Amino acid sequence: MRSKFGLLLLVVGLGISVVACGSVPQAAIDAAKAAVDQAVTAGANEYAADAMKAAQDAQAALDAELKVQEGKWFKSYTQATELAAALKTAGEQAVTAAAAGKEKVKGEATGLVAEVKTALEEAQTLLAKAPRGKGTAADIEALKTDLANAATALTDAESGLTAERFLDAKAKAESAKNAVAAVKTAVETAMAAKKR
């Protein structure tokens, strides 16, 4: 009887040791983290902020679960394996969303640059016809400077497109568009005032 009891204790002890030493799903964790790194490289922080946030939340959940298991005597990495799979999926979705977001912003920036080029030419032509007279020279020079700054911003936007910095290109093109619109408005207002 004692030998059966001793054998039973040995089997239970061995079972406890095996459960207590559950292994970390390192391959799944590494694959998940690689997917997140790929999302960062693809520009998900800039072009797919929501998808990147979801991946970061999944990363935090996995890290928290791993920490919980570290402190346990009887470790179980079932949930950590599931969380690693969810993180990998979130990372892959962020990569896809970043590519789509990048293409969308590229299209917007490209269209905006073309629009501003045309508007800049129109504003330059309009400024050449601006009414001149006493006290207008300084105003006209200021408007010329504004158009020159807009042209510089437009050149920077085109450089941003070439370098695939699409958000920067879009921001520069929008800045140029606003400056050109302000000049056109100022000249049109002056022309209308002169007609009165």
Structure overview:
- There is one protein chain.
- This protein has 196 residues and is mainly α.
- It folds into 2 domains: 23-101, no CATH class; 103-195, no CATH class.
- 86% of the residues lie in helices and 0% in strands.
- The protein contains 7 helices and no strands.
- The protein has helices at 2-20, 26-41, 44-47, 49-70, 78-128, 137-162, 166-195.
- Helix 2 (26-41) packs antiparallel against helix 4 and helix 5 packs parallel to helix 7 (166-195).
- The N and C termini lie far apart (118 Å).
- Mean pLDDT is 87; it is low at 5-21.
List keywords for this structure.
about 85% helix, single chain, about 200 residues, mainly alpha, rod-shaped
Short note summarizing the structure:
This protein is mostly helical and 196 residues long.
- Roughly how many Å is the radius of gyration? 32 Å
Residue share in helix: over 70%
Give the assembly state of these chains: single chain
Total beta strands: 0
> How can the largest sheet be summarized?
none
- Give the overall silhouette: rod-shaped
Beta-strand content bin: under 5%
How many helices in DSSP terms? Answer: 7
Count of individual domains: 2
Topology pattern, helix = H, strand = E: HHHHHHH
Structural class: mainly alpha
What is the residue-mean pLDDT, rounded to a whole number? 87
Low-confidence spans: 5-21
Distance between the termini: 118 Å
Question: What topology does this entry show?
Answer:
Elements: H1 2-20, H2 26-41, H3 44-47, H4 49-70, H5 78-128, H6 137-162, H7 166-195
